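TOKENISED FOLD:
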Amino acid sequence: MSAAFATFEPGDVRDLIADYPLAWVTTPEHAPPSLLPLLGEYDADGRLTHLLGHMGRRNPLHARLVQAPSATILVNGPQGYVSPAHADRRDWGPTWNYTQLVIDAQIVFLPDETDHALDALTFAMEGDRWTARELGSRYDGMASAIIAFRATVTSLTGRFKLGQDEAPETFAAIVERHPNPALVSWMRRFARDRG
């Protein structure tokens, strides 16, 4: 794999997590993974420092992380098969373009911040259109079944395989013909050296 695929900026991490907040969370002991919505928290330089989330108290991952708080978080972004037809070349081998982050983190459960975590996620998804308080009396019962957590990032690696190694004419053909607009948008974003 090209070293270019592992080259990215803090803003790429921020936008990938914002656009694709549903991430796999598991433990080094391979506890049953869970898909959980997460929000990034960043330092003054824009680097990811924490992820804020919540999970069901009955989720087996909760008990496992209480005992041993190390977690691995997998963020998958846009992806798609790239056909020779997209490249407009019969002599070109098909491939798969994708984006991913692998984040190692330490989890701390925050029962007193569950309302905050829910409000932050709701606002990120809904803006001002709706709040969880509109559930009325149902809110307390639902909120009591979950618990907030903050994941402190200890390492982060990423792969943004988005055609950076393609010849300019092949790249241009793929961008023009590929049917996945999200993937095409990220390909264009990573075409920084193409001008």
Observations:
- The radius of gyration is 19 Å.
